[in-house]
Amino acid sequence: MPTFQEALEIFHRPFFTLLRMAHEVHLQNFDEQTIQISELLSVKTGGCAEDCAYCAQSIKNGTKFPKHPMLDEVTVVKAAREAKKKGASRFCMSTSGGCLSPQEFEKISAMIKAVKEIGLETCVTLGALTEVQAQKLKESGLDYYNHNVDTSPDFYPHIISTRTIEDRIKTIETVQKAGIHVCSGGIVGMGETNEDRIKMFVLLANLSPPPQCVPINKLVKVPGTRVDDSQPIDDFYFIRMIALARILMPQSYIKIAAGRNTFSESTQALCFFAGANALFSGEKLLTVENMELGFDKNLFNKLDIKIQTS
User: Fold this and answer.
1) Beta bridge partners of 35
2) Can you give the pLDDT at residue 98?
3) Residue ranges of the chain with per-residue pLDDT less than 70
């Protein structure tokens, strides 16, 4: 189990030394030329009572983001079919607002079954779960449950007060107990230090087991949120984060998530070399912009990258 001091020493190694270390770990566990693609759909948007400082959907921020009811199953399945045509092997469905009503939970369970039937892996983000709910999701065929820890335990109270990081870890453990894969990472660039970022990855690496997928989000500033004036993370620090995550969690998929549209092709190529092997496709990630149509295809062609099919 890695310690903070061990991770700190790895993170501060010379840049190319760090990247070589991470790339060697990557080669031992994955095909370096293969990327796993997910697509994300917000199936229930806005009106969230949590106070996450970064989120446009929180009613406690000043974004005034509109609230939309849960999408119907036909609309969701149609979106999943389109995602599969574009190369996605996993379809992720997200809801805002934390706890779902029993009727909404049944709708989500039906969506999971329907998406599985068209040959895609499934992932959902629903907030905190009970053991009964987690078991229901498992029975519906859910493959992954996304529940980010967001940041380090030390910095967490600065961005969220309506729940604790211990609450999040409890939900992750509940999901693991049900036999569902965990997708858990965080956001960088909210005003935290590099030490906070390192502590976040150490926390994730010390889960038993570590998350099977680790999304790393670069903060996308939304006017009205409480972190819209924070300093953006330097691209080279972001690449170091990818490398550190790969070394600490060698068998996990390391996913470049939100903020990818701010990176150049060269930065993304270095992220892949450092161990990133998963990403979100599509032009939108919940409330923020993602990649322009055709960008990924062109980049993958230049890098001789193939898309994972299963």
Assistant:
1) 307
2) 67
3) 46-47, 56, 58-63, 65, 97-98, 283-293, 310
> Are the CB atoms for 76 and 111 separated by under 8 Å?
yes
Q: How many CB atoms lie within 10 A of CB 116?
A: 17
Beta strands per DSSP E along the chain: 34-44, 90-95, 121-125, 144-146, 181-183, 186-188, 213-218, 253-256, 278-281, 284-285, 288-289, 306-307
How do beta strands 284-285 and 288-289 pair? Answer: antiparallel
Under 8 Å between Cβ of 107 and 70: yes
Distance CA 59, CA 66 (A): 10
The pLDDT score that the predictor gives to residue 229 is 75
Q: What is the DSSP string of 35-60?
A: EEEEEEEEEEBS-B-S--TT-TTBTT
How many helices (H) and strands (E) would you count in the chain?
A: 11, 12
Can you give the C-alpha Rg of the chain in angstroms? 18
Domain 4-307 has CATH 3.90.180.10: no
> What are the domain boundaries of the chain?
4-307
∠ CA(148), CA(151), CA(156), 5° rounding?
A: 110
What gap in Å lies between CA 92 and CA 125, rounded to an integer? 8
User: What pLDDT does residue 232 have?
Assistant: 85
Peptide bond into 250 cis (omega under 30): no
* 192: CB partners within 8 A, 6+ apart: 151, 152, 155, 158
pLDDT, position 295: 86
- What is the C-alpha to C-alpha distance for residues 204 and 183, in angstroms, rounded to an integer? 10
